[in-house]
């Protein structure tokens, strides 16, 4: 869905509390230029059309509903096999803290991970600094084979440290999905060990990997 189409959808549904977006419909792969970027989508949900449009084209301002103040469930999946992590760092999501009413968040790694300029490395934003305080459930999808270690050591460690400090008191469940785990890969096994240890604290949310409790 492009900027214009999404603007029409949001304008027509000003009272929604549940929003789910898949960047690439099943069985199709649109051109890269037509894809809504992660940050662009969030700008639209914030009624920041000017910021969203500046990333796409020079279009007239549209007045949109302030969905970031009313959404209780947000699900974002921007995975694309053709354009894998094909975002600039300015296009990825850096914060959802102003989505203050969200209780259930599902977000794929492609929404907050970009490639470096030489395309050889990935840069993952810190999801622990991204999520709103009153969140109850967090699902991180499309973890794949190579992102587990960084996700644990940066974003999930941030969440665990925050729980120790009395934050995220309503967070009850964290689930990592679409994660490919190899028993013979020491870095992955260490990441899982660290993940179990860091959330083995009073008041910590339950952690699930591909539907199974750690």
Question: Can you describe what's shown?
Answer:
This protein is α/β, with parallel strands linked by helices. A seven-stranded mixed sheet has the order 1-2-3-6-7-8-9, with no helix packed on it. A two-stranded antiparallel sheet has the order 4-5. The mean pLDDT is 89. The longest helix has 17 residues. The termini are far apart. The protein has one domain.
List keywords for this structure.
7-stranded mixed beta sheet, alpha/beta, two-stranded antiparallel sheet, 9 strands, 214 residues, globular, single chain, 5 helices
Structural class: alpha/beta
N-to-C series of helices and strands:
HEHHEEEEEHEHEE
Q: Distance between the terminal alpha carbons, to the nearest Å?
A: 37 Å
The percentage helix is 25-40%
The radius of gyration over CA amounts to: 17 Å
Strand content: 15-25%
Tally of separate domains: 1
What is the overall shape?
globular
Count of alpha and pi helical runs: 5
Name the poorly predicted regions.
none
* Mean pLDDT across residues: 89
The counted number of beta strands is 9
Largest sheet: 7 strands, mixed
Strand order of the biggest β-sheet: 1-2-3-6-7-8-9
């Amino acid at each position: 869905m492009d900027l214009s189409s999404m603007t029409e959808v949001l304008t027509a549904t000003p009272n929604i509390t549940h929003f789910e977006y898949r960047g690439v419909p099943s069985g199709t792969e649109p051109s890269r230029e037509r894809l809504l970027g992660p940050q662009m989508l969030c700008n639209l949900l914030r009624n920041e059309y000017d910021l969203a449009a500046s990333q796409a084209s020079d279009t007239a301002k549209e007045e949109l509903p302030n969905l970031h103040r009313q959404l209780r469930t947000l699900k974002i999946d921007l995975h694309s096999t053709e354009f894998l992590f094909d975002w600039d760092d300015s296009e990825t999501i850096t914060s959802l803290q102003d989505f203050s009413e969200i209780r259930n968040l599902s977000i794929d790694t492609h929404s907050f991970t970009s490639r470096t300029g030489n395309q050889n490395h990935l840069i993952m934003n810190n999801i622990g600094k991204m999520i709103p305080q009153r969140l109850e459930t967090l699902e991180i999808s499309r973890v794949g084979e190579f992102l587990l270690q960084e996700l644990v050591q940066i974003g999930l460690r941030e969440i665990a440290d925050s729980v120790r400090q009395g934050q995220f008191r309503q967070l009850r469940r964290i689930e990592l999905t679409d994660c490919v785990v190899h028993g013979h890969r020491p870095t992955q096994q260490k990441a899982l060990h660290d993940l179990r240890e860091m959330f083995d604290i009073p008041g910590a949310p339950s952690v699930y990997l591909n539907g199974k409790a750690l």
